[in-house]
Structure formats: structure tokens, C-alpha cells
Amino acid sequence: MSKSKVLITGGTGYIGSHTVVELINAGYEAVIVDNLSNSERFILDRIEQITRVKPTFYQIDLCDKAKVEELFSTEKDIDAVIHFAAFKAVGESVKEPLKYFLNNNLSLINLLEVMKAKAVNNIVFSSSATVYGQPDVLPATETTPFQKALSAYGSTKQMGEEILEKVSAATNVHSIALRYFNPVGAHKSALIGELPIGIPSNLMPFVTQTGIGKREMLTIFGNDYSTPDGTCIRDYIHVIDLAKAHVKACERLLEGKSESRYEIFNLGTGKGTSVLEIVNAFEKVTGQKLNYKFGERRDGDVESLYAETKLANEKLGWKAELGLDEMLSSAWAWEVKLKETVDK
């Protein structure tokens, strides 16, 4: 029996690259498409170093539909698609909403139109806990009502899910939307990890870059929230656990185990950790002191958000296994390795 072929859009990105590794390890054939707007080509070599398999790669912008059609004509036997490719900086999306609506929604629509034409009927969608906004009740479950999105990024994820739900109802497409909470950490080899281009928009690379001296100071956005220490609370999940959930989602689709054409799963640990707790835990795990200060609240940030993960545990057969210490130590090992590479 030949291996199932999975197309991974945004496959050289942070979560995409870790998922490619887990797919290859699970025996899938991986085909990557990425426009390299927020990732680096050398990640392909790193994936090969880890897995001893060089994935097929296409440098394509999914907003160019003709290129997407060409890709599917070349790779004729794609069994499933995992769609990561999207702009994802919350703060930037507040300032440049049109950039986000155009890129994130058009890329998904182009992909679905070509999938329909080529009879590729399985897609796993990279969604986000940001779809919930600030829920009235925590933890957030898959049935928690959406609040009005606080950022254009959040809006594009809400719209992406809406598009998938309607397309799945009207066609043969079976889709699974995975709502991630806050992915952190890196592969144990320290060969791949979070690699933001420019100023990071996520907490963890800002923490590690400050720890190693790339950045002078970490600014914690707001210390006057109604949380125990005044800083925002999030559900941090190790990127490897997250990547493994995508493999489970692919299996579910390809084995015909979905209970409906459109399914949703939360991916988190079910535990909330504050920004200040992350900073203190980082100092403890790595022995590095962090320069940090408190700043104003940031537009688009919600106060507190963590997951109920029972559905993914029971239906996907998946559970987050790696704890905060592993998240922080692996993120730090990746940062140290990056510095060594640059210093050579």
C-alpha cells in the first residue's frame, strides 16, 4: 500500500515544519507549499536532517490561483491537505486589516476551489482559540459562542471556519478545524523552532531573544488585568503535541472516522498560565535572568483564555503530554542553537 500523500501549506513555518516532521515519522509522504514570506528555506534541510527524508517543496503564493491549479495538476494524488498558510500577527492585523482579509481568506478559497475541481476531499484547517474572543465562561469548549473578534486575524479565522462549514455541507469535502491555543517550544533536536522574521509578535520568542541578548527588554503588555498577578492568562501547548494532533486529524479523515463532514477540536493543555508565570518559569528552567518591564495593554489581546480539551482527548485520541518545563527548555535550546549558527 502506498503512503498517503499530504499537502502542507505553510509547511516551512513554525507549526508547519514540526507537523511535516511528525507526518513523515508516521509514514506519510509530505508535499510542502510555502511562499517563504515568514519562514526560511533552510528549514527544508533541517526537516531532512531530522527525518532523513527530503519533502517535495513548491514556493507558491496561494493567492495566485493559477499556481495552485498547476500544483495540483503536478501532484495528482494528494489525499489530504493541512492548511497552515496565513498571516498571524494579531497586532499587525489590527493596523492592516485588509492585508489579512485578502491573504488569509483568498488563499483558503483558492485552495478549496482547486481541491473541489481535483476531487481532493480532506482538509485540516489551522484555526485558533482567537475565534472565541473573550469568552464569558472558561474553559472554552468547542460550543463556546464566538465573541466579536478583537483583531482582523481573529476575524479571518472565524470566517475561515464559516467557509469550511458551508463548503463541507454543500460538497464532498470533509474538514476538521483545529483551534490551537498558544503553541510554544521546539523540536528536541533544536534544529527547528519558532523563527519570526523581524520583531516577534508572540511571547516565547520575545522571552528567549531577550534571554540571549538579542533584545534589550521584554515588555509585558498590561499588568492591570483581573487575573491573580494582573497579566494575561493563556493556555500554552508544546508545538510537538500540536503537530501530533494534526497527524491524528489526518488519520481520522483518511480512515473515514469523522462523525460529520465538518468537525472542530480544541488543542490545548486545559491549563492557564500567566505571562508573569512564564517569565518566572523561564528564569527557573534556564537560569537566565530576564530584563522586563510592564507596558500598556496591547490592542486585540483578551484577558484570559484556556481550553477544555475533552473532545480531542476522546474523539481524536490525542492528549497534550509535554509540560511547561519542556516547552521552555526546548525553546531556549533552539534559541541557543540559532545563536551558535549565526556566530559561526
Automatic annotation (TrEMBL):
Its EC number is 5.1.3.2. Pathway: Carbohydrate metabolism; galactose metabolism. Residues 7-329 form the NAD(P)-binding domain. It catalyses: UDP-alpha-D-glucose = UDP-alpha-D-galactose. Gene3D superfamilies: NAD(P)-binding Rossmann-like Domain (3.40.50.720), UDP-galactose 4-epimerase, domain 1 (3.90.25.10). Its cofactor is NAD(+). One of its GO terms (molecular function) is UDP-glucose 4-epimerase activity. The keyword NADP does not apply. GO terms for cellular component: cytosol. Pfam families: GDP_Man_Dehyd. The keyword Aminoacyl-tRNA synthetase does not apply. InterPro entries: NAD(P)-bd_dom, NAD(P)-bd_dom_sf, UDP_G4E. GO terms for biological process: galactose metabolic process. Keywords: Carbohydrate metabolism, Isomerase, NAD. PANTHER family: UDP-GLUCOSE 4-EPIMERASE. Homodimer. This is UDP-glucose 4-epimerase. The lineage of its organism: Bacteria, Pseudomonadati, Bacteroidota, Sphingobacteriia, Sphingobacteriales.
